[in-house]
Write a structure and sequence with these properties.
about 70 residues, mainly alpha, globular
Length: about 70
């Protein structure tokens, strides 16, 4: 499994654990993996019924985000 895929799955799991909905956790995880691989910080567009809550959960949980494993 590619390192980016493993990281994406790790982030999706972490976001699920902190309560982010399935739609938002996939968008946030993908954006974070992109940022880590390209260095580009893209604005994530969240599309759910309570995007503000999902964004706040992710923001509050940021300090507990799992570290990226080095190869």
């Amino acid at each position: 499994m590619a390192a980016e895929t493993k990281r994406y799955l790790q982030l999706v799991q972490w976001l699920w654990e902190i309560g982010v909905c399935w739609r938002c956790r996939h968008a946030i995880a993908a954006a974070q993996v992109d940022k880590e691989t390209t260095g580009t910080d893209a604005k994530v567009s969240l599309d759910c019924s309570d995007a503000a809550q999902c964004r706040e959960l992710a923001k509050r949980g940021w300090t507990s985000m799992p570290a990226k494993e080095s190869c």
